Amino acid sequence: MTRTQSSTLSYAKIGALVAVALSLAFSAPSSAQERQRTSRVDSVFAVYDNTRSPGCAVGVIQDGEFIFTRGYGMANLDLGVPIAPTSVFRIGSTSKQFTAASVVLLALEGKLSLEDDVRRFLPELPDYVTPITIRHLLNHTSGIRDYLRLMFLAGKRDDDFYTEEDALSMISRQEELNFTPGNEFLYSNSGYFLLSQIVARVSGTTLREYAAENIFRPLGMTHTHFHDDHNEVVPDRASGYAPTNNGSYRISMTTLDMVGDGGVFTTVEDLRHWDANFYDQKVGGGQLVQALLERGVLNNGDTLDYALGLSRSTYRRLPTVRHGGAFVGFRAEMLRFPTERFTVICLCNSSTTNPSRLANRVADIFLDDRLAPVPTVAEGRSGTAAERAEVDSPFHLSAAQVSEYIGSFHSNELGVAYHIDVATDTLRVRINGAIDVPLEPRERDVFSSRPFALRFTRDGTGQVDGFLLDAGRVKNLRFTRVPD
User: Fold this and answer.
1) Where are the alpha helices (DSSP H) in 383-464?
2) Where are the alpha helices (DSSP H) in 382-466?
3) pLDDT digits (tens, 9 = 90+) for 364-398
4) Is the dihedral of CA 45, 50, 55, 61 positive or negative?
5) 139 phi and psi, to 5 degrees?
């Protein structure tokens, strides 16, 4: 081993020891009750508390101060660096509240209104029958199809690269919406990506720069930013991971530079400053907080749980304000109990972790005397075995019927063609080598598969001429048969 190699290993080990020391220092218990709570929290995260797997950074805030912080597992498996409260994580959709805050701050500056038609700032979007407002984007009531799902349906895999311009072009090609704006709630990353474009066009700078100048720096969030350059070096960054079938892990990161719907890099420590702003209102004053917490309202008058980048609900009868995040190998949850001035932050770097559930369990430990009893949930599925069998039984097609669906079908909105054929007696849909899945018939002209459902259409002579595709956050995507 050379002197250089020896020094490099020493630095890595020193960094690891320092991170562990910081983690333990933050969470050192000072009373019997605190020691008991620490032990119980440790048991919640015990599966991650080793040097062989990724894990989570956890922070518990009471009255603006940490009463518990610790890291479990490894921030980087290559270098043997453990997770600490100072580790920097991608937080996925938990980022949306910062995008919403940026938009509200621009509204408070008088540079836009939440009731503005989005085409005032994004004229390249289609002129739909019912105008889409900025508030629709914020509340997920716009009806705009989710661009991440559209890209997947167009054959883009998780590790494929595409640009902001590609995403905006895909959204702008959509001839239809999932529903009339304001009629329904359907979570869509497109809305918050478009909000990032609006912030840029209104402010004359990027969302990253605007949020840094108006939110992160004023609050002292020195390790937080919108990550709009995947090649950028980020000190103390935790790598994202996904488990393999053999019990090991693979790196799970992204080359995408889009932000708004996600993209914030931050730490448990920095998020304490953001949490404090909901009480001391240093940035934006009471108007910002009030706006972020205002629930959406549908056209029929129904009030949503979703506000602006935040979801309002209850947990064991206590009011909560929260938002989770999930993208590539990262998972996040920030759970606030505003009446208790109590918050749990859980940032993880494994794709199979459920930080929302973990945050709930941490809240159970600290708020046990203030939470309602855990409700009893009936086990098993409802209905008789015969009723379930009737629902679950497959629909059978003859060979002649199956042949009606074989062919190529093109979508102008996706800009791709799907090829449907038969392999090993099973109807399959394929696209560009990225999608190859079986289609299971449910009824005549209706098929389902894990990522989507197809409803075939017929012309005046009864011949199959196309289909409509539903895929969760994308509905009624039209494909037309390509002549042989």
Assistant:
1) 385-392, 399-403
2) 385-392, 399-403
3) 999 999 999 977 655 444 444 444 334 455 678 88
4) positive
5) -90, 0
